[in-house]
Design goal:
The complex is a heterodimer of chains A (419) and B (139).
Chain A lengths: L13 H5 L8 E2 L2 E2 L1 E2 L10 H13 L10 H21 L7 E4 L2 H11 L9 E5 L8 H10 L2 E5 L12 H4 L4 E7 L11 H11 L2 E5 L11 H4 L3 E5 L10 E5 L1 H4 L12 E4 L4 E3 L13 H17 L1 H20 L5 E3 L10 E5 L5 H9 L3 E2 L1 E3 L4 H7 L4 E5 L6 H19 L3
Parallel strand pairs in A: 3-15, 5-6, 5-7, 7-8, 8-9
Antiparallel strand pairs in A: 1-2, 4-10, 9-10, 11-12, 13-14, 14-17, 16-17
Helix pairs in contact in A: 2-10, 3-10, 4-5, 11-14, 12-14
Chain B lengths: L1 H5 L2 H8 L12 E6 L6 E9 L2 E10 L2 H14 L4 H17 L23 H16 L2
Antiparallel strand pairs in B: 1-2, 2-3
Classes of the chains: A alpha/beta (419), B alpha+beta (139).
Chain lengths: 419, 139
Amino acid sequence: MTNAATRTRLEWDSDKIRALFPTLQRRVAEYPLVYLDCAATSLRPESVITEGCNFCRHHDGNPHRGMHALSYEATEVYKSSRQAVADWLQAPDSSSVVITRNATAAINLVAGGLRGKLGSGDNIVLTHMEHHANLIPWQQLAKQSGAELRFVPLTEDGQLQTDMLPSLVDDRTRVVAVTHVSNVLGTINPIALFAKAARRVGAFSLVDSAQAVGHLPVSFAELDVDFMVFSAHKCYGPAGLGFLIGKKAALEQLSPAEYGGDMIEYVSYEEATWAEIPQRFEAGTANSQAVAAFPESIRFIESLGTAAIRAHEKEITAYALKRISAFEGMRILGPEDAHLRGGLVSFYDPYVPPHDMSTILDEHGVAVRAGHHCAQPLHRLLGIPASTRASFGVYSTTDDVDALIQGITEARKLFTRKY
Amino acid sequence: MNLDALYREVIMAHHQHPAGRDPLPEVSASAHGYNPSCGDEFEVNIHVEDGRIAGIQVDGHGCAISQAAGSMLSQVAVGLKVELLEDLIDAFRSMLKTGEPDSTLPGDLPVLSGVSQFPVRIKCASLPMTTTLEAIAKL
């Protein structure tokens, strides 16, 4: 692997990178597509699409089952994909990488795996900026166990009040779960602090890295959490695939939350014993072509380098923050400083409702997300019904931001006229 | 541009000056409508006397299309037999599918036919209607 992290910004060749993404060739409403919804799902480079297709064309077996060549090859594909993820994110080894449907399923796997292990008097510490995926599985676990939910509150500018951690995390805390990068506020959170607070009291720590992996340098070893989850489709990979990375000792304490084929060792009509980790948590056949394709996403990301990607997204974000906040009355959600945030900007326009903003932008070929972005409680806390979000990736340019600004200007014209 | 079909002046006028917001002195049934994908929200109160809509309040917040649809509905509902209001809502929802302006619909409602060109927005125009049907179902 080249030392991509040390590459300079001068080498960033937007045209060359954009040419790798076939979807960017299309038009929407007669305009070239401006894709600013990377936080919902990123586009996929041709090489990743081809790799998935190649699996179907040449291998296509069901892993871990058959004795024939195709099944053996599929098993090898799973092994190498797991190893690629472990190497990339500095997980202890490939057996600490569990294949899931997406990040949501991975969090459910952990929360479901702790059923029956918490009781009344225990507590789970979350934050006020969590995606529904890192809230509802814990709500359900709390209801089932009688445990209390606690929340780290926000500062005025949308960061976490980490000084509250010592009072919120106590000797009855069993889980501390936090998002790595907020999908609404963009805030990059100090995960190591949360992991340390959890470790101090012997609680599990989980980080939802869905908006971080592929966008900034991420190391499971450095963060020193018990569990990390992410989705392949948010980092230039295929949909229908996610990962749970766990420390061995932590994974061993989880019960399987899904049962069936492939996760067992010995089965009678009455009883079953479980397979080793990680297969214990992988009931049924996964999305094999996605599993096969994902190492190509990693190769693509590493060909640019996560440090260079981070620098690029930060530059686009800073430019977007400057341009969007220049509109009179516009409210930017989250920290004002691009250094503190990932590659996204959510905003609330007092003149144009988010849904209308999104429709008008779409008619200009600009794809953004409008709504609550799977964070209803956070929007209620912020006192707004919904927001509009522009999110960036390797293919984003300042021209894209200019197209967004042009669209917002048109929307404002339409909505500020007196009727 | 298609946007002109969606954001007609009459729709924007309803959005900026919505009708039917005033509380009713008497309420026969209420319903709450919410579109979880975008945050549009309605509270519909109806007052029925002798099988006819004697009063309707369509209160809410959200996008221009949903707010205009609620406002237009409130302007035409009063005086209608409850069954007729249900038929009217059915006809309105059919119009959103076909895109043909239904000139038999009263008031400004035919103007919303342009929404059919924006499939993701049909739910917006429908929300005050489905919420009203929910209130009627509680009578």
